[in-house]
Amino acid sequence: MKKNKKCVVLLSGGLDSTTTLYYVIKQGYKPVCLIFDYGQRHKKEIYCAKKIAKSLGLKYYVVKFGLPWKGSSLINKKLKLTKSKHKNVIPLTYVPARNIIFLSFATSLAEVIDANYIFFGANQIDFSGYPDCRQEFVDAFQKMINVGTKKGVSGKKIKIVAPLINLTKEEIVKLAVKLGVPLQNTWSCYKGAKRPCGSCDSCRFRKMGFKKAGLVDPLDKK
Q1: 121-176, pLDDT tens digit by residue?
Q2: Report field, pTM of the whole predicted structure over 0.90
Q3: What is the CATH number of domain 6-220?
Q4: Which of 99, 104, 183, 204 could form a Cys-Cys staple with 132, CB 3.0–4.6 A?
Q5: What does R_g of the chain's alpha carbons equal in angstroms?
């Protein structure tokens, strides 16, 4: 019996999610991309995600939803994009339950298209301390899918895979280059400007990854 290689990939247009997408394709999976517009100030990532999916000829869905209660500096422009000072302190850029919401949509899509896998670019090494980017979270959500979905209770499980979760940013950058990821088309900055700010957490981790890899970020050349 031929193995079902259909999968859902959460695609933000950033370094991690785009590298995950290219990794998935390299492994022979057949991805459908899920892109989210949740009122984030860095809407350029949506444009980048769609551009990447289109360039690969992949089917994608853009899910638009709002969080009227805000709760994050990524969706509330009145809050400053402060830098995280310690991994044990969750920064204001954390969007409450974001990956729970994202993976819930992904699970629904996976059931409808009969996909057995959900891939997303969570990373718990060089990150801002978000609780929903840790292996413990992935494991817990996996258990929920197993008992709370039609596929799960019928023995056709949907497996969540976070292939980059234990990689450093340096390792992710090197993997991206190896996979031929068009890094010039990715976007990591939290600010909604034309160029990366270079100072937000996401920019700092990206910059660190390229520096340690001994490479120049193509976005710095623009």
Answers
A1: 999 987 778 999 999 999 999 999 999 999 999 988 899 999 999 999 999 999 99
A2: yes
A3: 3.40.50.620
A4: 99
A5: 17
